[in-house]
Each structure stands twice: as structure tokens, then as C-alpha cells.
Amino acid sequence: MKKLSKFLKSAAILSVLSAGLVACSSEPSNDPSSDGGETGENTGGGDLKVAVMSDPVSLDPHGANENVSNSINSTIYDRLVHMETDLTIQPALAESFEQIDDTTWEAKIRQGVTFHDDSELNAEVVKANLDRVRDPEVASPVSFLFGMITDVTVEDEYTVHIETEFPFASLPAHLAHPGGSIISLESIEASYEAMENGGQPFSTVNEAPAGTGYFKFEERSPGQSVTLVKNEDYWHEEKAKVDSVTFTVIPEDLTRIAELETGGVDIIFPVNPSDVSRVENGAETSVQQSNSTRMVYLGFNTEVEPFDDVNVRRALHMAVDKQALIDGVLDGTGVIADGPIAPDVFGYSDDIDRIEHDPEQAKELLAEAGFPDGFQTTILTDDDRERQDLAQALQYQLAEIGIDIEIDTYEFGTYLERAGQGQSELFLGSWGTVTLDGDYGLYPVFHSANKGPAGNRSFIDNEEIDSLLQQAREATDDQERLDFYEAAQNELAAESPYAYLYFPEIIAGVRDDVEGFWQFPSTTLFLRDVELNR
């Protein structure tokens, strides 16, 4: 019998602790236990205000997989297991989670837990959630996380068995993802009823979310704000420290900063690197910076000309000066991405083939591909300021090898839709390894089964890559998994569906009277321990 604590060692998730993943550039500290505010008596409570750059895609955790949605949903919902701030995975709604044979996990469900709609948590509810997120009719964008699950059975009122198609060591890490959130049975039933009447699968939950989390839904003004209030009946001994939190949508970077400076909001995310000094030097504001597992890339749609030619893809990859991008776009706040997963993620290897900056070799590859004078193309991006700066920098760099780029900009939701549907030639994107496990960093992004919205927006279809990623999923030995991930990354270097660019630092702005704020390496906000020292 393999218990959860043993899983942590076998999956090497604890390796991130020794790597010093989280580093704060200035007070207040991003360690929830530290005192980062000005001196003064903290009486608790208060209304926390957080400014974000975009509206959440959905308040149904099975209906979205982007940072704003994940950050909000992580406060409304709990999961069977969750990632603690020390980056270990621990039981949550499952008071125990054990592997009882190679392909069977047993969850003992916590008793006495109620949802925000006053319904009760039990094994039937857990089964309904795991069945729903895998239901093809629902078409959840996070279904790829649970595609290896073949059956969920209720053993008794508070015991569930989860069967997988093959041994899958990463299952706890996947269940800890926000996509593994548990919603009430009433919410699921309402969702299916809406579908039967021609409605969308995520609309009813989006309008009336009901989880078990430390905050519960109060109201939403689409495109403007989401307000949550403290769950006074939260099952965990650690409850929210503030009375409410309002997420306000402020797309413009400088407007977010102005609101932070005047006290209109308490936390802003993200902060553009070029604005760090302004926030850092503010009278009552500071920045929090930490390493991230988010890889920013230039993507190639491998199904359209000329990017169906590997020589063209490799040529553009070689033409990119990554350090210049970090210095110019990020003001130095990031590290070069030589591969698709960050150094602190299980599956990272120093021994992978790197595509070095070599403009002359790039020109030779273009000539071999039939483009000695280059060509014209478009790059798809969203209206984030960093992405805009990045697009312009790449436009300039690639012009050196004769690539004439037009920039197509859309708001974030439209950008995601177009990229997922393959309505692009070049596109800018990012992918964070939320689980800190290589399976999440590679399988959804590069396996052919996930073409489109699930993550494979380059539409790469390579049998060798598919085979290596599948073998890594099924391996039970850590070193075997690492070997498969290394081989897969070398094959990806040869195919070059992405030009990996950099891993940016996470940068948030906070008021000096905010304590206990923290962000996971995936950039998901953690707000349970936030206090207002006023």
C-alpha cells in the first residue's frame, strides 16, 4: 500500500524545496507566515481588493484553465488533495488518499463537510465530479488531466476507488490541480439539466458556484468584478482571515498601479517588469517576485505552410536572441528557456539538445526550405502589455533573417479561442506546469491526442513524441520517467513546434499593510492567509 507521503518522494515533488523556488525581492515577504506589513495592531477581517488583468473565463472549475479563473476558483472550491505552500501535496477533502495496487487509488472522504449550497459531501458527490470532468459531452478543457482514469466506484458512503488505465504516479498531482475541484451534486445536476435543454455545460455553475472553499460566491458583474465572502463554516481549522475579497478586472497595467498607489486595491497581478521600480518606490507599495514554472514561447502552427516544414521552424527558433528578449521585455526578470519545463519541475534535464542563437545558420535553413529571401507571416497574440512588447521585439529580431511579421492582437478570450482552433500561423503563448510534474508540462502541450484547446496549439503530431510521453506516464520508476522525459524533450528539440523563450518571474504589487499574500509557482494566487494590517 502506497500512502500519499510516499508518493511525494517517489514523484520527486519535494525536490523543489531544496531548489529555493520562492524568492522575494522585497518586503512584504511572500512567505505566508512572515510579517510583511508596517507595524500596527491587526484586528482581522476587512475587505480585500485584488486587481486582475482579465475576466475569469468561468467560475466552473471544470470549465476553465487559465490563471484568473484558477486563482478565483481555488478559493471557492477544494480538491481531494491540495498543494500546500511548502509545495507538498497533502490530503484535503480526502482525509486519506492511498494507492492500494498499481492502478487503484482509495480516497477516504472527509465527513461533515458541507457545500456553500448546504448540501453534503460524500463519495457519490466525488464520483459525480470525476465522471463529469471526463464526460466527452461536457468537453471540459481540463479533461486531459484525468483521461487515464477508467472508472470511479463508490465503496461506501465515504470511500471512493479510482481506477487508472495504467500505473500513473502523477495522479495526486493532477487531482491537486484546480481542475480537480469538487462542486456540489446539485450544481452538477443543474448543469446536465441545462445541457438537456440546449444550454452550455458550464453556464449554471458559472452563475451560481457552490464549492466547499474558504470563500463563497457573493456576486459577479461580468467583465468588471467578482465578489466572494468568508465561509464561516469552512471545514478546515485555517479559515480565511478577511471578511471578503473582490477581484476587479483592470486590463490596463498603469491603471492597476494607480489603483494600488491610491489604496483603491490591495493587490495587483501582474506587474509589468518595466513598472517594477515605480511600484517598489511607491510610498505605501512594494513588489513580490518569485520564480515561476511558466514557459513563454513562440508557437508554430505545424499544419499550415510554411510552418509545416521543420527547417522553417528551426530557422526561426535559431534567429531568436532569448537573452535580449529577457533584458528588453522583462528588464532582466526571467531566465532563458532551453526546454519546455522549468528547472524546478520533475522531468527537467540539463542534458537536452539546445537550439542556440545562430542567425546565419537560420538563413541557411530558410534557403534550404525554399525561402532564401524570407517570407511574410502573422503572429497571433493577446492585448497583454508584455505580450505586445514581446511581439514587437520578435518582429524586429526575425526581420534580420527576412521574416516580415504582422501582429494580430485580440482580447484574451478571443486569442485563446483562435489559437485553440488553429486560426494562426505564429502565435505567442505560455504554459505553466501547475502540478510541478513533467507530465503536465509535456503531455497536454505536445501529445497529438490534445490538439487544439486542450493544450497542443501547435498541432504537432509525432508518433515518437507520443510514445515517449505515454511511456513516461506509465513508468513507475522515477529514473525511468526522467529518461523518457529527457528523450521526449530531445525529440521536441528536433521538431521545434515551439521556440521556447523564457521563464518569467512572477511579479505582483501589494500595499504595505497586506500580510500573508503568496503565489504558487504556477502564478495561482493564495489568499487564505492574507490579513489587512489596518
Task: Characterize the structure shown.
This is ABC transporter substrate-binding protein. β9 and β10 form a beta hairpin. The protein has 17 helices and 24 strands. It is of the alpha+beta class. The N terminus is likely disordered.
Mean of all residue-level pLDDT scores: 91
Radius of gyration: 23 Å
| Content of β-strand | 15-25%
Going by CATH, the architecture of the largest domain would be Roll
Q: Largest beta sheet: what is the strand line-up?
A: 9-10-11-2-12-20-13
**How would you name the oligomeric state of the polypeptide chains in this document?**
single chain
Write out the CATH superfamily name of the largest domain: Dipeptide-binding Protein, Domain 3
Distance between the termini: 50 Å
- Derived from helix and strand composition plus strand pairing, the structural class reads alpha+beta
Shape type: globular
Bin the helical content.
25-40%
The CATH topology of the largest domain corresponds to Dipeptide-binding Protein, domain 3
Protein name: ABC transporter substrate-binding protein
InterPro entries: Peptide/Ni-bd, SBP_5, SBP_5_dom
Family: Belongs to the bacterial solute-binding protein 5 family.
Region (Disordered): 24-49
